[in-house]
């Protein structure tokens, strides 16, 4: 039995789902709220799907963008909860080694990178409903976001490939107090 492969595989899904959720939170909190570079629908004046334009510099536009940002954050929150539930379902022993495992954090980086790639390609390029930073050089910002996503996937993949197998300690038989 290949323990490294088993550990890596068992942590792949929870790690990727957690990475998608956490990557979405970084995008939403940092780019939408703190830097205020964009919101979900701030580039719909020249989108490719016909969504009405909701500029962030009007009250109505900001209300609609805040609603869509909230729906986006709901998705990322659910991804984190699902990722944690998947992870918990795989944790029985050696919890400390699991949380410090290169396998888990490698897969989290893969998920974050996949989030950037999928969200960047769909929202920034195909639908064009928003950009990382609108204005001059917006295409460069969008491409940089994709490159960052690809780098996260590559680093995460390499990290999980170098993970040390997690071996569970031997099971101890519990005595049944009623016998």
TrEMBL record:
Q: From what superkingdom does this record's organism come?
A: Bacteria
Query: What Pfam families would the database entry show?
Result: DUF2243
Listed transmembrane segments: 12-35, 71-92, 104-127, 139-159
Q: Does the keyword Signal apply?
A: no
Q: What InterPro entries does the record tag this protein with? A: DUF2243_membrane
Q: Does the keyword Membrane apply?
A: yes
Keyword terms of this UniProt record: Membrane, Transmembrane, Transmembrane helix
User: What is this protein called in UniProt?
Assistant: DUF2243 domain-containing protein
